[in-house]
Amino acid sequence: MPLTDVAPISASIEIAAPPAQVWAQVSDLRNMSQWSPQTAKSILRGENGLGARFININRKGPLVWPTQTKIVRFDEPGADSTGEIAWRVKENYTIWSLRLEPTTDGGTKLTSTREAPEGISDVSVRLTKVAFGGVPKFTSQLETDMGKTLAKIKAAVEA
């Protein structure tokens, strides 16, 4: 039975660039290895877009592990509308997303979220306890890493 009492975690940042410019960077998950403290590499299998599949190589300290993801939402932002890319991790059932919202000054509010609408798999919970000090500690680290990821995306887009 998966761990089902899982609150979403998220972080946001404002970027001094229009949503289309931010989308050009974040809509290709192969870029995640440049930003995420945990993603070492993302390998696209097929065409990028809704339904695309990735193999990810993740790392934390000396630990390295693969995951498989599939893009489940791929909504390019319009001139005055929001956009979102979301991907589901097969091994732990979580859904990660990046949501882009236009700001009144022509920039973009970028929000990273991790949800677990189906809970987190038993295997993932057990491995998290053994390798990362438990779910609460690892969740806190993920939330901290979200902020670091968003800061790196902001720096890349604004450069």
Automatic annotation (TrEMBL):
The lineage of its organism: Bacteria, Bacillati, Actinomycetota, Actinomycetes, Propionibacteriales. SUPFAM superfamilies: Bet v1-like (SSF55961). InterPro entries: Polyketide_cyclase/dehydratase, START-like_dom_sf. It comes from the Bacteria. Gene3D superfamilies: 3.30.530.20. This is SRPBCC family protein. Signal peptide: none annotated.
